Amino acid sequence: xxxxxxxxxxxxxxxxxxxxxxxxxxxxxxxxxxxxxxxxxxxxxxxxxxxxxxxxxxxxxxxxxxxxxxxxxxxxxxxxxxxxxxxxxxxxxxxxxxxxxxxxxxxxxxxxxxxxxxxxxxxxxxxxxxxxxxxxxxxxxxxxxxxxxxxxxxxxxxxxxxxxxxxxxxxxxxxxxxxxxxxxxxxxxxxxxxxxxxxxxxxxxxxxxxxxxxxxxxxxxxxxxxxxxxxxxxxxxxxxxxxxxxxxxxxxxxxxxx
Amino acid sequence: xxxxxxxxxxxxxxxxxxxxxxxxxxxxxxxxxxxxxxxxxxxxxxxxxxxxxxxxxxxxxxxxxxxxxxxxxxxxxxxxxxxxxxxxxxxxxxxxxxxxxxxxxxxxxxxxxxxxxxxxxxxxxxxxxxxxxxxxxxxxxxxxxxxxxxxxxxxxxxxxxxxxxxxxxxxxxxxxxxxxxxxxxxxxxxxxxxxxxxxxxxxxxxxxxxx
Lengths: 258, 211
What we know:
- The structure holds two protein chains of two kinds.
- Chain A has helices at 19-28, 80-101, 107-123, 168-178, 186-200, 230-254, and strands at residues 34-39, 42-48, 65-69, 72-78, 132-140, 144-150, 156-158, 161-164, 211-219, 222-227.
- By secondary structure, chain A is of the alpha+beta class.
- In chain A, the strands form two sheets. A five-stranded antiparallel beta sheet of chain A has the order 8-1-2-9-10. In chain A, strands 3-4-5-6-7 form a five-stranded antiparallel beta sheet.
- Chain B has helices at residues 53-72, 78-93, 136-147, 154-171, 207-210; strands at 4-8, 12-18, 21-23, 27-30, 36-40, 43-49, 101-109, 113-119, 125-127, 130-133, 179-185, 188-191.
- Chain B is α+β, with helices and mostly antiparallel strands.
- In chain B, 33% of the residues lie in helices and 31% in strands.
- In chain B, strand 7 (101-109) and strand 8 (113-119) form a beta hairpin.
- Chain A binds chain B through residues 99-103, 106, 108-109, 141-142, and chain B through 72, 74, 76-77, 79-80, 82-84, 87, 111.
């Protein structure tokens, strides 16, 4: 192909493509899945844990979910060390805004500010782009609950439900079919996220220790960002397995007639 | 020599400023100058200061607030604008080029309702029910203390303002013939007719005038 045009980020190929950016997105396609679903009363952020080695020490808050400020959190898919640099920047922007204006930074502003940084790495400086896609969940007084996704090119979009990482396209098409706008509450969103993740996971079976789920809700005018404890995770997985078994049984019953 | 007043009512802020521009300490250049600046459709800043700092700072803040609006599609709330203004004052204070200004910020937004902020050149900032800057403060704050109460109507606030202006006219040596007044409420910024001191002294109050 046009190999001459892909080693530097700052060059267009003759077809008008930026290969380095595309290769970065390719790297993310192999990373652990993350998905986000907007509900009427909150947002669900679910992520596949890849570091399930028993020898690993306990993580303080979470492995893949980062708290950005009191009203926003994010999850990443891609190169973890790149992600750490970006989440640090996000936290810095958020605090700077709080210092300047005395109020939390609105969600879209934070996303857009970071995306401007990401875009710079695709245009000048001679450095490679960040190999990270990020899913942001947050609440602000202007637009309520919001879900955003950004990628290495510096583009971002607001979503009702989306997925990044391994098997993300399969997940997105599943979400397209199953997600019901305006009719999904947090509980349904949690069930849906388990259902979608079970299809996208590499391994055969979905267990509570392979997945991390966080919810963002508002209680008494305060935002609550909560990682689900293992007990709740296990309950959700169990519920999902029971429903699957029921659906299988229904199918078997219908079979003789067809 | 200059005077700024602000009174927060039930769901509005009443802002008043004198209109004199002086030169060399003794010459009255102009007696109909407007010292208030519109920041957004529901935010007003009145400012006094030396050597052009007042206009320079007010325009700088106003343009930045407008830029925020252009970039994001929504306005800063009163609290955010006040924090931003104070942060700028504080940063410049410890530089080689501090701004020597006193200001009042009055605004209305959906969450907080009406709010009035008092700020000075040392980057003091506080939310207050009423405030006065300048020598006029020495003559009027006690009047405000005596007659201000929460949830004042526009009529009551204008009445109180008239008392204050009359007191300044009675006892302050500098002549300040008119005051520009504006009200900020949920419907935006409203310019009212200039207020002038009545013949009677402030302590008696213009009872008959406003009924």
